[in-house]
């Protein structure tokens, strides 16, 4: 996963704070995700659509389902797994959208739609 340098710095600070507060599980998980992520410059042109996010979430949920199935040495019906993946993908997106404070669910790196302009506010 690619994250901005700004996000990398925020996650690193959160991991250090979690370690200081003895939130070991939070610190461990943040450090794992930081190590597994590649960092891009904040100024780098970057596009990431809702469809790409949906695909990422679904792929990760399928990996989780496979891991759980292997744990139980079972092969559940793929159609039933897909129904659970759809349910949890939607729920995860909505829960994290709320945590992020987004009312409309539009991502910061969505491509502009035809005819849409970028408005930049400059304080003088």
Overview of this protein structure:
By secondary structure, the protein is mainly alpha-helical. It has two domains: 1-46; 48-113, no CATH class. The protein is 60% helix and 5% strand. It contains four helices and two strands. A two-stranded parallel sheet has the order 1-2. Helix 1 (5-20) runs antiparallel to helix 2 (24-36). 2% of the residues are buried. The mean pLDDT is 85.
What is the arithmetic mean of pLDDT?
85
The count of DSSP E runs of length 2 or more, i.e. the number of strands, is 2
The helix content is 55-70%
Question: What Rg, in angstroms, do the CA atoms define?
Answer: 18 Å
The helix/strand class is: mainly alpha
Low-confidence stretches: none
Number of helices: 4
User: How are helices and strands ordered from N to C?
Assistant: EHHEHH
**Proportion of β residues?**
under 5%
Distance between the termini: 37 Å
Shape: globular
Can you list the strand order of the major beta sheet?
1-2
Largest sheet: 2 strands, parallel
List the helices and strands and how they pair.
Blueprint: E1 2-4, H1 5-20, H2 24-36, E2 38-40, H3 50-72, H4 78-100
Parallel strand pairs: 1-2
Helix pairs in contact: 1-2, 3-4
What's a concise summary of this model?
This protein is mostly helical and 124 residues long.
What would the keywords be for this entry?
5% strand, 60% helix, mainly alpha, 2 domains, 124 residues, globular
